[in-house]
Amino acid sequence: MKPGPPSSVRPVPILAFHKVDDRFEVGVTRIGRLRFSRIVSELRGWGYAAVSLADCADPARLPEKPVVLTFDDSYESVHRNAFPVLAAAGFKATVFVVTDYIGRENAWDVNLGWIRFEHLDWPRLRELRDAGWEIGSHTARHPDLTRVPASRVDAELTDSKRALEDGLNAPVRFLSFPFGRYNDRVLDAMQRAGYARGVGFWLRKPADKTLVFERKAYYLFDGNLSLRSKLTGSPLGFLENVKLRVINFFSHGTALVKPSSD
Ligand SMILES: [Zn+2]
Hints:
The chain is of the alpha/beta class. It has one domain: TIM Barrel, CATH 3.20.20.370. Strands 1, 4, 5, 6, 7 and 11 form a six-stranded parallel beta sheet that branches. Helix 2 links the parallel strand 5 and strand 6. The chain is globular. Zinc ion binds next to loops. The site of zinc ion has 5 residues, from loops.
């Protein structure tokens, strides 16, 4: 029997999280500790096993139901609240770091709760690395890469990669685009800087799909039904796309109202 065409191989679902924190803020990217624990329990109950983006390069070695768990912005709460839950479940994850903010407080995220959220410092990043987590770049200062000059794009991608590789003594192969936004110019810069792939949200499909992993973001208002649709690409996927576009539209305000990020 002939093997099926490559398109019949379903891509590994990739979930994107941000803060896992019980402190209140006006925003949709934060989820509480209890909710996160329940998500991990659901994933285990449904038979999923967490893998890294690097693992996805070799489909033959993937478990039967793989999932990649990613965290953007490398908030300290990922280490404090998500790491213990994942470790207890035997899961690893991928964290995308904004390197100029390592060990510092956030300055770009719209946060009407007036709480300053801290980012992971080097000791915690190394602890995650030692536990088998994958560490990727989320640029140096989190600009919208589609809206800054080409020289700035190059610097954001190369500086952050070098900082992480020096600080962690490990290769950095993956890049998460700030606000999920990229274009052909950004993809060219990504390849020049030596990344294997980027992760974003397919608001616009790239010409070369092998350069970008599509992710589904998990938000404050998401429940089990939308978690399943994010994992399986069910008909609810259409709604997911509408939701993503609305949130992406408003997150653009984040880039505009925060003057201190760049
Ligand atoms: Zn981000």
